[in-house]
Amino acid sequence: MPSSVVISARGEQRVRAGHPWIYRTDVMNVEAEGGDLVTVIGPRNRRLGHALFSDRSQITLRMLNVGEGDAGHALIRSRLERAIAFRESLGIDANAYRLVHAEGDLLPSLIVDRYDRHLVIQSLSQGVDRLQSEIVSILAELLRPEGILARNDPKVRMLEGLEQTVEVLHGSVPASVTVHEGPVEYDVDLRTGQKTGLFLDQRENRDAAVRYARGRLLDCFSYNGGFSLRLAHQCAEVEAIDISADAVVRIRVNAERNGVPHVVAREANVFDELRRLERAGARYDTIVLDPPAFAKNKASVANALAGYKEINLRAMRLLASGGYLITCSCSYNVNEEMFGAMLHEASIDSRVPMTIVEKRMQGRDHPVLVGVPETYYLKCFILRRVE
Hints:
globular, Transcription Regulator spoIIAA, 29% helix, 7-stranded mixed β-sheet, 9 helices, alpha/beta, 387 residues, Archaeosine Trna-guanine Transglycosylase, Chain: A, domain 4, 32% strand, Rossmann fold, 6-stranded mixed β-sheet
């Protein structure tokens, strides 16, 4: 008997509004097992489309298509082909970028990143985990990579009742892969690096920051030095701050590799360091704030906004007249309006007038699906101190 799930009127409304997620509270009847591709039926017994079903997650259904069309192998292959073709059309000056951005490519809970001749995939739901071997086979045929690695170690898999694993699924994957983003080169450990190896979503924001960076640069939460390395040729002095000793070592290695020895990396708590620098009367022409997600869920938004305000207020005070602040948030629970309001409050409380030069977001290889706010997570404001 074909697998099917009946949803409520509210669930049907979400489907028709274009949101791919149906929560457990809107599921009326289930004839399926975890990981099944199911037919989704409305409360008036109308077929609404197909979805990936989870018997563990609060997100019970992830819609693959709406309407009468098929949702089998041909649809998966077509979506992968279109996602790959879109990236090829962007003319990205990098050999490391996102090939499939889950809901943003209508392949919910599937991530595929390219690192030169290697691919890294993440299967973040029961349904995609079930389809993983099929997806790998299609990717191997379309792209002929030397290796495909599954970085199935995000904690979100635990919400699906899935194991956290890292394994090679096709070909071979070396311990380290050399990639470039524009003029900057990195050695990447695909098995243990953050996310799938690198943070790939800031590439275009770093390119934009090149237009403004100058003088003395302070790069906070610098991780592997992405902003520091990209802006180093525009800045006479570069200080990179991160709380991780391993990150500091990586920055130093990357600085030497890229021929920018004036990038100085220090291990420090950014909150404490910003206060110390303010007391010391330090001044910078360019400051980058690229912290990790402060708001992991809606309950932590208030504390996250307080944290964002603290670091931005301090950074504004540290800016020289006419200096630029590149400030980011990757917390999708803190939306652009909230982030902008926080920056306004920080400007008032710091008594530093700031203008908005640019509003930016995640790179184009991480597309945002209209009507699905969860796919718009990275905010990047470029601000200028007026006086």
